[in-house]
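Case 304 in the screening queue. Each case pairs one protein sequence with one candidate compound; here the compound is octanoyl-coenzyme A. For every case the pipeline is the same: read the inputs, emit a complex structure as tokens, and attach any notable structural observations.

Predict complex for case 304.
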Amino acid sequence: MHPTARLAVRSSGFRAAAGTARLSRFQPSTLPRVVVRFSSSGSNPQYEFIQVTEPRPGVGQITLNRPKALNALSTPLITELNTALLTFQSTPSIRAILLTGSQKAFAAGADIKEMAPLTFSSAYLNSFIESWSNLTTTLKKPLIAAVSGHALGGGCELALMADMIYCTKTANFGQPEIKLGTIPGAGGSQRLTRAVGKAKAMELILTGKSFSGEEAEQWGVAARAFGSYEELMEESLKTAETIAGYSKVAVQAAKEVVNKSQELGLRDGVEFERRVFHALFGSEDQKEGMGAFGEKRKAQWKDQ
Ligand code: CO8
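Case 304 output:
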């Protein structure tokens, strides 16, 4: 843990308390600004189902912490996760985010016990699961998912929402919803298909068969797979720290253009990239980065 891992977070006018589904919508609050404190130990009375730390300079870590249910993703957990992500998003000192679970489970899916009694009308009218997507639409800072153990159903979908997955070779990914008489509902059929192609995605989703972290790496679902949990965590932190060391402006732009490739055709995507590339000539950090190269010194980013 980084010794100075203690910071005061201003939650920028958003309600920081967790516990109600309403808060997961990232809506501005009329309440006064609150200061949330968290420490390197992860102890934070605000959260019951996650731990929030700053293990390296510029790196915010969220650890899913519902061990008795293998980190099953209940609505209160997702509400806390959204709150923590939003807090990191609005904390200037946080430049990259790591999302992880335990060695045994990243997350074993949406909470089956919570879902079992749902009716069509209650799920539909309350937009059940919709708030999960806040992560992909609201978060501008890069998010790495470090996956060990089970990443099933909603757990797999949550990992797929991250910008990059690192995992152990033995991690257990899968979309087993078919075995429960349902289908992926948090983007799995779309993101997994984009990652592995239609044939493999069909096989995985129609059979509910799991795939290993090693396969996830081979198929391009995960960026890297590691031999041990310790290595996974160390390398994930190192990568997050590396990203945190670059210009925030360039990092945000890089994330934006890569994500656009998932939505646009090649021609539009390349044009979008070029526009953003041109725009970066207006940033101070582009001048600093290229100037520092010429002067053979380390760049001092201003995030301008
Ligand atoms: N939800 C709730 N509780 C869970 C879940 C879950 N997804 N997964 C595990 N648990 C609980 C178990 O019930 C058990 O609790 P208890 O001790 O009170 O009985 C505890 O966690 C430990 O689990 P196990 O004893 O089963 O542990 P094992 O090591 O034997 O097995 C497995 C681990 C293989 C991961 C097993 O727990 C399992 O199969 N879990 C369910 C996996 C699954 O099917 N996930 C998909 C859920 S559906 C989903 O995510 C859909 C998302 C999108 C929904 C969209 C709706 C609109």
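Case 304 observations:
- Residues 157 and 187 are 6 Å apart (CA to CA).
- The chain is about 40% helix and 15% strand.
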